[in-house]
Amino acid sequence: MASHTIGVFPASGGIGGSTVKHLLPRFPAKDLVFVARNLANLALASAAGATVRQANYDDDKSLEHAFDGVETLFLISYPSVEYEHRAEVSLRSFRRVPSIGEMATNLENLKRHRAAINFALRSGVKYIFYGSLGFAGFTGSEANNETVAHVMRAHLDTEKYLEECRHQHPGFAYTVVREGLYSESYPLYTAFFDPNNPVDEIKIAHDGSGPGISWVKREELGEGTAELLRIFAKEPKEFQYRNSTVLLSGSRTWTLEETVDILAKIAKKPVKIRQVSDEEFAQQSQVPPNFTYRGVDLSKPWATAFEAFRQGEASVASPLLRELLGREPEDFETTISSYKV
To answer: Which domains does the chain have, with CATH numbers?
Structure first.
């Protein structure tokens, strides 16, 4: 394999940390650049010889040279369920890579995903793998680009912006990696059910029936992404997913009722779903603290995920992760049986 510099940002956290772990044995360390807010999380990567840099989404100055020398960047989304701060540009979108002066002038309008993409382009990044989310769904092999899920809007906006950049910047290309919903994220969709302190009823804006969710282990998403990057770096021009969208998911779909049955089994206690309104879901005492960002409670917008489930947005089970791993992805019950909330 010819030398090819791969960057990851943010390179810590669940997906970032797992991807870093699985990139290290696949690439020479000198060809890896990991960017994160907390460099302590990258100590092992640094010791292995990878380049580590400090930057974060909310500090444009830190992003200015974070991607220098990187040819291909795995860009993981901003860790929030907000829309505006992650993706929306209130006045205009940049139609070319802006100068540093323009960046400073337009900071109030330039949102986090687009800012990171623009800084990457200014640094010479030629290819971006974007870590999107597994809502919106697919029709056949074609990715759908509409959603009712609030949490997915910023991702679709970012996906669209990458396509705009492809037309505006010759030589630039991308792959959108829609990551199936993490098995470990089940509390978000079960009103923060805790098997260690189980309740009798889970009150959500859904009756538990299908279509369901193709749950996938977060660690395996990182591993699959690392393998996808290895395949790309080996033959970039022949990469079959250039300028397209792929889905990494589990191999089967679980309804919310089946999901809760597994949680009840782990809790060793009968647990039922009780369907409530979006408002009732959002007003439960344990919900707002987990969905409040910058002082704004997004619990009710989050409840749109339940309507997305009803419409089958998260129900597609793709074979791609299995192909990348060379084995069946771990099933939901196995993952959650050993997972600590």
So the answer is: 6-182+215-248 (3.40.50.720), 184-212+252-315+332-337 (3.90.25)
